Each structure stands twice: as structure tokens, then as C-alpha cells.
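Hey all, sorry for the wall of text incoming. These are the two entities for the joint prediction.
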Amino acid sequence: MDLTGGFGARSGGVGPCREAIGLESLHLGDEFRQLVTTLPPENASGSFTALLELPPTQAVELLHFTDSSSSQAAVTGIGGEIAPPLHSLGGTLAFPSNSVLMERAARFSVIATEQQNGNISGETPTSSVPSNSSANLDIVKTEPAETDSSQRLISDSAIENQIPCPSQNNRNGKRKDFEKKGKSSTKKNKSSEENEKLPYVHVRARRGQATDSHSLAERARREKINARMKLLQELVPGCDKIQGTALVLDEIINHVQSLQRQVEMLSMRLAAVNPRIDFNLDTILASENGSLMDGSFNGTPMQLAWPHQAIETEQSFHHRQLPPPPTQQWPFDGLNQPVWGREEDQADGNDNSNLMAVSENVMVASANLHPNQVKMEL
Amino acid sequence: MASADKLINTDVPEKDVFALHFLQSLSNLKTQNPLNSPAKSIDRVRKIKKAAYVSMARAAGGTSRLWSRALLRRAAKDDNKSVRFSRRKRKVTWKISSKRRKSNNQRAPVVEEAAERLRNLVPGGGGMETSKLMEETAHYIKCLSMQVKVMQCLVDGLSQK
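and here's what came out:
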């Protein structure tokens, strides 16, 4: 028991030592590590008696103003102090010292685990000091990385501050290389870091939903499908009222099938009408714009498709306005009407009433869409 | 869902485009094969139907859409004269199909069963992911209804007199 008590006191001495060093070496991780490894714990307890003699609440308040991380270190140290009485009480969670301390400690979940570490170290005295220090080191090891990243962010905003730190010097060398490469590489680096931290920022899991990456991806996929489904529902008539994805899909399938059947039926009816029409259409269309078939394989075939006198006007169109896709359609439509008109003229020449009907009908079809243009023509 | 709707582009060209393309492919049909004998009416129906689909695919933007690309490819398989097609693109869409279908079947059996039927209907649907299939189906439905309108107008006009 005496041995364990002694070790507990020693660990209690190490605790404040670490907290005091942690204050100074928040951004000097390597130096701190050297200090911890080189300093024997007995010397440390001797050198930090001033802090030890303060009441623990004051010590915490002295250390608390800096950072959450430094207060972590502080409370771990106090956890080490608390450890021996805990051990003497047989591991029951009754802290004798201070209620304020308890509240402070309870705020940080990490600290609570650290306290338990301290308890365990108090119970197993041979491994107490190294295990405690290593656990604490892990915490402090993470801190220099954070400060490095923050400083790298500062350096991205073109502030050259050189902090005398061995690890930082290495970083400086690397950073110069980064800056030589240019801003794009640093941006990529930053974005990759953010991606490592938060892989799915855009997908939020509501309460009770799974948060692993597979179910997040699955949920995103389902939402995508639902959006498309809504779009399809708007397209298919009478599909708005139906509930249920499968039924909606059935209705969509029926609609597509009916449309395809309609095409088949209409082509049958077209085949049934007088075959001479096709012949006449052939002559007219071949004479009017025979080159259209060649250009129609591309996505924007209309520029190639026109007879030569039409190309000039279209080019003037393109020079006047910027050509987004609708403006490519409009000159086409505007030029389309004279084509039909000419077809009608030639139909008169051919004295074929069927062709008249066809061309008139297509005129009607276009008139449904462009009443303005037809008015202009009339 | 507003942001997702922005991404889905199912714009369809005007009716005139469909009409023009259809009439041209009809005329092209005649120049290819000037058979006017009534004995081959079935063959004629088939050809007009094919002309309707091919012209619809061309009017809808040629190879920019997956379904129109598949339609043109299918037409090109029937006869290499009517449609010229780059060979490189042929292999792309078909390779995905078997894996995707297997993985999709595990998810939601009812929806995927319906989507499977839809894949058989929409040309080129075999190689599509489900969300892409929906998008292509929306565009396909728009174009099909447009084509049906054009053909209806044509038939009405021809049978009126």
C-alpha cells in the first residue's frame, strides 16, 4: 500500500509538471516530448512545487484561460492527484477534493476517460507512470498537427511567420516547395484534408438514420431516383395521384408502351395511304435541302443543313447574338417556314392535292407551336 | 429537390424539327428502296416505323442522348447504309450492364423489377443505372409524344381529303 501510495504521489507530481509544460509547448510538441522523456519524475515534482502548493481550483483557473487542450492537461494532472485516494477507497467513484473540479472535469468527456486512466495507473503501480505519460503524449501529439495545419492555412494567406521549432522548420522546407508548385496544389491539399475529415458533407443524416458511408450513398441514390420519378410523374398524364413507386413505374411503362404502339399504328396508317406521296416528298425534299441528311448526325446539324442563301442570314444571327442552344433553334424555325412555303408552291406546280394536305398539315402542326410566326406569314 | 431538378435536363426540340426529320427520313426511305408494290406492305410498315424512330432519335439530338444513340446503333445494325456511327462508342454502354443489374437487384426488388421492364422498353436502357434510366425515360417519353403528334398530323392530313 505504501508503494502504491508513493507511486500515486509521484504520478500526482508528474501531472502538474505535464500541465505546466503543456502550457508552454502547445505548439512545441517535440520539445515537450523531449522534456517528458528526459526528465525523471522525481525532479519534476521538485521543480513544480509552487504549482502544487496552490489549491487545485486556483491552479485550474490559472491554466483554464488558455485553451481547452491545456485544461485537458490540467485536469489530467489533477486526475493523477485524485487517483491515490480513489485507489484507497477501492475504486468507487467518490472524489473527496472539490466539487468545482468535478464539474470542470465532467465538461470534457476526454478528460473523464483520462481520469479513469489515472485510476487504473494508481491501481497498477509498476506501469503507472509510463502508461499515463504515453496516453497523455498521444493527446499532445495530436496538438502539434493541428497547429501545423492552422499555420499552413495562415501561410496560404501569404503570411510568412517563422516559428523556431524543429518540426516547424521541416514544415517550412516543405512549405516552400508547396509554394513553388503554386496555389493550385495547396488548394488541392486542403481539399483533400477536408475530404479525409468529412467524406459526406452534402448528405445529412436525420435522427435515427444510419451514418456509415454505404447507407449515405444509398440514401443519396434513392433521393436522386425519387427526383427523377417526380419528373416522370409530371410527364405521364394521370400519374400524379398514384402513390407508390412501383405503381408509378407501372404507369410509366404503360405510357411508354402505348406511345410505342401508337407509333406503330400510325406508321401502319402512313403505309396504308397512297404511296405516291412519299415519292413526291422525296423529290421535293431532295431538291430543297438534300444536304440535310449528312449534317443531321451531329448534335448541332442545322448550320450545315441550310441552302447557301440561308447560311448567310444564319451567320448574321450568330454574330448579333451569343449562340446558346435556343437561339440555334430559332433561326432554324424562322427559316423553316419558307421551306414549307416553297414546298407548297411546288406542290401547286405538281398539282398533287395530297402533298398540299401534307404540307398544310405540317404547317398546322407548327402553327400550334408558333402562332406568331404563322401570323407573320399570313 | 429543386437543386436536383436543375441537373435533369429533358429539353426537347420543337415540333418542326421532328416533322422535318421525319419527312426527310421518309423521303430517304423512298430513295433507298423504291418499292411501291402493295404486296410488301408489311415490309413497308416496318420501314416507316423504323424511319419514324430514327428520325425521332436524330431530331432529339443524335448521339447526345443514350437512348437516341442506342436507337441509331440498332438502326445501323440493321443496315449500315442509313446511319454512320463511330465504332468506339459502341462498347462503352454495354459493359456496365450485367454488374449493375446484379447489384441493383439486391436493393429493392419491386422497384428494380419494374425498372427492369422499363429497361427493355427504352432503347439502350440495359446499360443504364436506375436514376439515369429515369432521366432517359423522361426524355424519351417527351420525344415519343412529340413524334406521335407529328405522325398524327400527317396521317390526319393525308386521310382527310
